Amino acid sequence: MTRRMKGALVLAVLAIVVAAGSAFAASTATPGVTKSTIKIGGTFPLTGPAALYSVIPKAENAYFQYVNARGGVNGRKINFKVYDDGYNPANTVPLAKKLVEQDKVFAVYGSLGTAPTLATRDYLNKAKVPQVLVATGDSYWGAQYKRYPWTIGFQPDYPGESRVYGEFIKSKVPQAKIGVLMQDDAYGQNYYNGLVQGLGAAKSKIVDVEKYDATQTDVSQQVVKLKAAGANVFALFALPTQTITALVVATKVGWHPVTFINNVSSSPTFMAIAQKSGADVTNDITATYVNDVWNNPDTASAKLYKTILAKYDKGADPLDANNVYGVASAWTFVKALSMAGKNPTRASLMNAFTHLNAKNPFLYPGVSLATTPTERFPIDQQILEQYKSGGWHPFGRIFSKAR
Amino acid sequence: MRLRRATAASVAVTVVVAAVIALLPLTLSNYHRATGASVAVFFVAILALNIVTGYTGQISIGHGAFMAVGGYTTAILTHDHGWSDLPTLPAAAIVGFVAGVIVGLPALRFHGVYLALTTFAVALAVPQLAKNYPNFTGGTEGLALPTHSGLWLYEVGWAVAGVMFVIAWFLLRGRTGRAFRAVRDSEVAAASSGVTLAVYKTVAFGISAAMAGVAGSVYVLVNNFVNPDVFGLTLSLYILIGAVVGGLGSLWGVLVGAAFIQLLPIALTTSHISSSQSVPVIFGAVVIGVMALLPLGAANLLRVALHFGSQSRQSSDIHLGTEGR
Fold first, then answer.
1. Which segment of A121-125, A357-361, B195-199 scores lowest on mean pLDDT?
2. Do residues A46 and A138 share a domain?
3. The predicted structure's pLDDT at residue B313
4. Residue-range definition of the domain harbouring residue A189
5. Contact B229 A91 (CB under 8 A)
6. Are residues A126 and A191 both part of a single domain?
7. Taking Cα atoms as reference points, which of B275, B113, B299 lies closest to residue A47?
8. What residues in B contact A1, CB-CB < 8 Å?
9. N or C: which end of chain A has fewer CB within 10 A?
10. Contacts of B228 in chain A (CB under 8 A)
11. Are residues A193 and A144 in the same domain?
12. A351 plus A229 within the same structural domain
């Protein structure tokens, strides 16, 4: 009996130790804001199937460090907390709660992924915590603002991008037989819907659609099937790892379609990896909205970008468009924060995010950054690019989603 | 005499643990209460797996799927049919039971690794099914549910865990539990002793899945969100890891296993950005370490500690599970 009691004590102590560390801080001031600091946080896939995006929070943090070194925003230094959710929404929910309730962040910033954002959107909006510049291009964030006023995206929406691919195929590839590889979730579906819209009556030219699960990285079978279906156009709505695999497998099985790669996987770094692994990526097409610093290394933006990475994100690859994305996103956050007033509140931050009108030096020249309370897509312009002689080259005119 | 003393002691330990769990939220923040609620979820899930794998010897890598079945039952009933939260829990148990019996049928013919693969297939298939019927399940966009306070979640989670624990206790200590263990140890011997294999295997799967369904239900309430990715394969694997770390065939280890799989990853993830890449490695290393040092799970450590110095050393029974002899 007493020995059993000892056992119970052991368990009790364990339970208490495990639960220890709770914070009691409660104040009436805006959470996360002090005289000299402002605390924000986000969730990112530092590991798991989307881990190639793990450079983004580092680049964002580099820009914040750069701003902090210059005195911060209205005298406040930005403290950016980054948690790894492995691209799994079941992890995102407790981590978002931790950011809000334990870390007491001012805002959730930059969190990556469609499913993770969907999973936390309800909670954050009920708690009235800004969920800003989410790193996902689904149309929900800009379109459903009446229901979710505390959520706002950043990049152009996916359907707008793939609609342009559809229109391009319709007018430029007359004998097209389209094969689609898409992730089997809301992200893939958003891209697919846009493509179908862009094709219009030509949507019957889609000869095969192959899907893969987000946790699955080998897509060889799907690629072989698309080839077997006789497709001569390849629309890739997939994450970076799966995209690289698909490009390599396509070349290896002797399939050379006209290839469209969704923006989120077309970083020059990923293209270089695919090429090194034997993929023929010449003439592939994608769309971009970030500054193509690799084509214009002598511009002020490109130089600043490289300096920031070199100083605050050592080892980062300046060729990786995800780093440009991170810096551009962080720039936008800093801009909105400075617009939110000397003593920012969560409401004044959202107000700033819905009144953006700025030239972001890290976006493609001519692409504007603008929102109104009823038009909540911060970026809605892009330009098509083609891969030639080891790099992306923009062509044609900047297009907007023209909703 | 001895048996009765042991039972009394077990009851005492249970009461103390229950009291600690009941009083714990007083010292916890809202966030930690919600985290405590998800420990309760995994407590129930591991308890469920333990019935079918630890006690009956039928390996399942598919318990995440049963959680999905229960979770979606709750989500759909509350989101689309105006039910309030709690009445959906028994519904989830019933739906889970039916799913468990269906999956349990192959268990009549398959053994060991073949059965494990069958349940593995179920774990893969169920989230896929949810994706394919978006009008019913919300598809990949998922369904959002009402939020609750951390205290509410903690209380509901552990009340459910308590009920499930008592059910498991009564089930496993009596005739049924004996029959389950007999099936595990030798099917031939069990059958020749009058245990109807078909009935007990299916019942074990059914009850286990019903419990997992309830766990999934509470999981959905804790996360106030459901989509197919929530119930991915990793969930099933984590439950299995929790059961093995805690100790298969033991009710005591369940608590340790649940805390292990729920709290360790969060603690590792939220420590610091630079170490994030190594979280899976550290987690894996800890699992291997536990397996190397405590091959019978944490429960066995407790058992060894309790019996240490006891003059009435029994013949060492190192078979899986000696609880409730």
1. B195-199
2. yes
3. 41
4. 158-288
5. no
6. no
7. B275
8. 5, 8-9, 12
9. N
10. 185
11. no
12. no
Whether the CB of B17 is below 8 Å from some CB of chain A: the reply is yes
Q: Residue type for B36, please?
A: G
Residues 128-147, chain B: which have Cβ within 8 Å of A?
A: 128, 131, 139-142, 144-145, 147
A30 burial (CB, 10 Å; 0-12 / 13-18 / 19+) is: middle
Closest CB to A118 among B5, B141, B256 = B141
Structure tokens at A275: 């090429």
| B259–chain A Cβ distance below 8 A for any pair | yes
pLDDT tens string B80-99 = 898 888 999 999 999 999 99
pLDDT digits over A97-114, tens only? 999 999 999 999 999 999
- DSSP line for A231-261: -SEEEEE--HHHHHHHHHHHHHTT---EEEE
Note every long-range contact of A137-145, with CB atoms under 8 Å and residues 24 or more positions apart, other chains counting.
Answer: A137/A161, A137/A190, A137/A263, A137/A264, A138/A114, A138/A186, A138/A187, A138/A190, A139/A190, A141/A117, A141/A376, A142/A375, A142/A376, A142/A377, A145/A374, A145/A376
- Give the span between the Cα atoms of A87 and A303, in whole angstroms: 32
Residue A28: inside a domain: no
Q: Give the chain B residue whose CA is nearest to the CA of A3.
A: B306
Question: Is the same domain home to A276 and A317?
Answer: no
Could you give the number of structural domains in chain A? 2
For the stretch B108-137, pLDDT in tens is 788 778 888 889 999 999 988 888 888 888
Rg value, chain A, Cα: 23
Which pairing describes strands A37-44 and A77-84: parallel, antiparallel, or unpaired? parallel
| Ordered alpha helix ranges (H), chain B | 2-23, 30-49, 63-81, 88-107, 112-132, 134-137, 150-173, 175-185, 187-192, 197-223, 233-246, 253-269, 279-293, 298-307
Strand A357-358 with A258-261, pairing: unpaired
| CB-CB under 8 Å, B259 with A1 | no
CB pair distance less than 8 Å for A90 and B30: no
Residue A345 token pair? 């509140």
Chain A residues within an 8 Å CB radius of B30: 101
> Considering only alpha carbons, which residue of chain A is nearest residue B220?
A90
> Which residue ranges make up each domain of chain B?
19-239
Length of chain B: 325
- ipTM > 0.90, yes or no: no
CA of B103, closest CA in chain A: separation in Å? Answer: 23
Do A206 and A278 fall into the same domain? yes
B29 in reach of chain A (CB within 8 A): yes
For the stretch A364-390, pLDDT in tens is 999 999 999 999 999 989 999 999 988
Same domain, A260 and A341: no
Chain-wide mean pLDDT for chain A? 90
Output the six-digit token pair for B195.
């245990």
CATH code: domain of residue A347: 3.40.50.2300
Regarding whether A81 and A147 lie in a shared domain, the answer is yes
